[in-house]
Specification:
The protein has 243 residues and is of the alpha/beta class. It has a single domain (19-177, 185-213), classed as Spore Coat Polysaccharide Biosynthesis Protein SpsA, Chain A, CATH 3.90.550.10. The chain has helices spanning 32-40, 60-65, 80-90, 109-119, 147-150, 165-171, 182-192, 218-242; strands at residues 19-25, 47-53, 71-74, 95-100, 103-105, 125-134, 153-154, 161-164, 197-209. Strands 1, 2, 3, 4, 5, 6, 7, 8 and 9 form a nine-stranded mixed sheet that branches. Helix 1 links the parallel strand 1 (19-25) and strand 2. The protein is globular, with a radius of gyration of 18 Å.
């Protein structure tokens, strides 16, 4: 694991890589405009923005389409994993980034992460620190640490991720067998398959905590995380057998 922020050289031979930013949303009218403003406020270019709409029944579509420079995609099937995979398949960029509709990026998130990947061609993906923001009049679920709201913590979540396209070609996309745990499963597969990664030790992502968070379904979340752990252990066991 690396945390070097030195920016020198250019792994793309002088041409800045195109970043595909995938925003997945379902009935996210309350937060979507803020999320998109944080994307279009980035101090890095070029990037494209794809909004994958999971059949919203609120004003999500109108809000997304009001931004003339996005690609709006209606999700014909269901599920978070499928939405992310639709975005990956449609993306044209050399690098893939994600932003959940209720999260926010710092304005230099892309420039820092892309710069790091440019200068470290051996690294396949980076994640940043995340700071949680508790929405007013929403309850805080058990398991959160105080530093998560103050100094932040390592963000093992797609909104903190910038990855080279090759990572998805090697280990696949997000597993639709998981309702909530598809993100944890993807990071576990990346780790178990030794995809070289680095943590950028700066808070570049702000994640809202509110009652409508998908992870608020504690029972499903716990069950799926246990499955992710069991599958990870089995992958490691098989690797040891095959050595």
């Amino acid at each position: 694991m690396h945390s070097d922020l030195t920016q020198q050289g250019n792994g793309w031979g002088g041409a800045k890589p195109l970043v595909s930013v995938i925003v997945v949303v379902k009935n996210g009218a309350r937060y979507l405009a803020s999320a998109l403003r944080s994307v279009f406020g980035q101090d890095y270019s070029p990037f494209e923005v794809l909004v994958v709409d999971g059949q919203s029944t609120d004003d999500t579509a109108q809000i997304a389409k009001s931004w003339g420079n996005i690609r709006y995609i209606w999700q014909s099937d269901h599920g978070l994993a499928n939405a992310r995979n639709i975005g990956i398949q449609a993306a044209q960029g050399d690098l893939i980034a994600f932003l959940d509709y209720d999260d926010l990026w710092a304005s230099d998130k892309l420039s820092i992460q892309v710069g790091y990947l440019e200068n470290h061609p051996e690294i396949l993906y980076t994640i940043t620190y995340v700071r949680f923001l508790l929405e007013q009049n929403h309850f805080l679920r058990p398991g959160f640490k105080r530093e998560s709201f103050e100094t932040g913590q390592v963000g093992c979540t797609p909104s903190a991720l910038v990855a080279r396209r090759v990572v998805f070609e090697r280990i696949g996309g997000f597993n639709p067998d998981f309702v909530i745990g598809c993100d944890a499963d993807w990071f576990a597969r990346a780790r178990d398959n030794a995809m070289a990664m680095s943590v950028i030790p700066r808070v570049l992502l702000y994640k809202r905590i509110h009652n409508a968070n998908l992870s608020a379904n504690a029972r499903t979340n716990k069950q799926e995380l246990l499955t992710v752990i069991r599958q990870s252990i089995e992958r490691k066991r098989q690797r040891m057998i095959n050595k």
